[in-house]
Every structure is written in C-alpha cells, then in structure tokens.
C-alpha cells in the first residue's frame, strides 16, 4: 500500500511558488489574501491559524476582516465589495456557512473571478464548468487533483467514483476529473448501490463528511482512495470518510487523514492568491 501524504505535494507547490513570489516582491507586490470571517467559530479559527502560518512562512500577507455575528447584510456585502476593489488585496476567502441571518447571494454573484481564490462565485463556477482553464477551482477539489498528479496516478480513461455532490468538493472535483479524461460517477445519499459504485472504480474520491463510512466492503484490491473527509470519530479524533485501517489493507494507494488532502489545501489557496497578484501587475 502506498501512503499518499499531502506534505510532499504541498512542498512542491510552495517551492514552485518561491521564485514567483520573489519576482513579485521585486516589483513591490506582496501577495495578500483577505479573510472575511463573521463571528469566531472554532473550525474557522483553526483554518485561519493554519493559513496564516503557511502565508507567513512564504512571506505573503493575510488580512483578517472579522465581523460580528450581528453584522448587517449591507456591511458584509460592502466589506467584500471593497476588498474586491482594493489593489493591495489579491485574493478573498470568506468563511461559510454564514450565520442564518445572512446570505452570500450578492457576494456570490458579484465577486470577481481573479480575487475569488476558493471559487465561491458564479464567475469561477462558470469557468470550471466550461473547463476553460481560467479562474480557480475550490482549493480542496484542486488539492485532490494536485495529489493525483504529483503521485503520477494516471486519470486518462480511468473510472473514478466521487462520493458527494456538494458545490465545494463533489461537483467541482467531478468536473476536474472529466477534464483529465477520467470517466466519472458521482454518488450521493440517493445512490442505489454505493458499495457497487465504489467497487467498480479504479479511483474513489470520498467527500461525504461521514466518519469512516467507506469500509472494506466498498473497496477491492488495486484501487486508489483519496479521502477528503474531515470528521471527528467517537473517540474525538480527527478522521476521514474512509475506515483507514480496513481499507488500506486492500488498496494500492490511499491518502491518510490527517496528513492527506487537508495538508495541500492551504498551498493551493496560496497558489491562487499568488496567481491573483501576478495578474494584478499585468
Ligand atoms: P456536504 O456539503 O455535507 O456534502 C456531502 C455530500 O456527501 C452530499 O452530496 C451528500 O449527498 C453526500 N453524502 C453524505 N452522506 C452520504 C452517504 N451516506 N452516502 C452517499 N453520499 C453521502 O459536505 P462537503 O462540504 O462537501 O464536505 C465533505 C467532507 O469534506 C466533510 O467531511 C468536510 O469536513 C471535508 N472537507 C475537507 C476539506 C479539506 O481541506 N480536506 C475541506 C473542506 C471540506 P446529498 O447531496 O444527497 O445530501
């Protein structure tokens, strides 16, 4: 069994970005991400700490716009609109879900593709749908593709089963896999025989958000399994959607949780912000 660790993939992305960042600095530009956070949810704060550490280590900037839970819709919309216009900001990440009193409706429609570093807006979703290579995909979905490419896992003509159809992971990763010439099956809670769909695949991408639901009964020898899930198990430990101990005994290659997909996501975010900065200097 090959363990597909995220760190070497992230390290390679970071190394490739270093000369680009240096070049931007010579031109007086520091790639800078604006994080828009409403309230202080612990999972948002944990992700924010992780990305600040990564951006710091690469000498890139992070500006956090912290808004109170009772912020008005107008103020939230204006905050993002102003960041979108700010020439010193090269990417925007807004934590979601928002509190129930707020909607992302206006932001999703208006955010410009070049600053929409995690593909929450309709402009980048359209780019992804068209497969035109413009804009950015959601960082986690892109991280899945980066891992498969880094480890030389050929996608052409391969059967890939994606478990999950969310706008953040399942659907975008399916579109990206199609672009890589894979034959893709997308599964969800109404899929009639999930075990059979998983067993029939060469590669499984698990993104259901259900702790350890992919057991040995879903897999067969020779498969590659990419586990996107980030869940907490009964003992309170971080775990994926895949029952790693059981499944890793059968599969050819597998990503662990933690130390898998999640380790690559912030490097992809950094890459998107650096790309935004490069575009800003023309
Ligand atoms: P989500 O919005 O809740 O979507 C889950 C999807 O999985 C839905 O399409 C749902 O089907 C499907 N699903 C749920 N249970 C299923 C089951 N028993 N059988 C088949 N399909 C099932 O979740 P998400 O935002 O896509 O996130 C998925 C996972 O990725 C979560 O664990 C999340 O924490 C993790 N995640 C990881 C990273 C990272 O950096 N590694 C980043 C973001 C999220 P329906 O559409 O029918 O409801």
Protein described:
The structure is a single chain. The chain is an alpha/beta fold and about 280 residues long. The chain has two domains: about 30-110, Leucine Dehydrogenase, chain A, domain 1 (Rossmann fold); about 140-260, Rossmann fold. Helix content is about 40%, strand content about 15%. It contains ten helices and eleven strands. It has helices at about 5-25, 40-55, 75-85, 105-110, 120-130, 140-150, 170-180, 195-200, 245, 260-280, and strands at about 1-5, 30-40, 60-65, 90-95, 160-165, 185, 205, 225, 230, 240, 255. A six-stranded parallel beta sheet has the order 1-11-8-7-5-6. Strands 3-2-4 form a three-stranded parallel beta sheet, with helices on both faces. Helix 2 links the parallel strand 2 and strand 3. The longest helix is centred in the first third of the chain and has 20 residues, at about 5-25. The radius of gyration is 19 Å and the shape is globular. The N and C termini lie far apart (about 45 Å). The model has no long low-confidence stretch (mean pLDDT about 95). NADP nicotinamide-adenine-dinucleotide phosphate binds near residues 140 and 190. NADP nicotinamide-adenine-dinucleotide phosphate binds near residues 170 and 231.
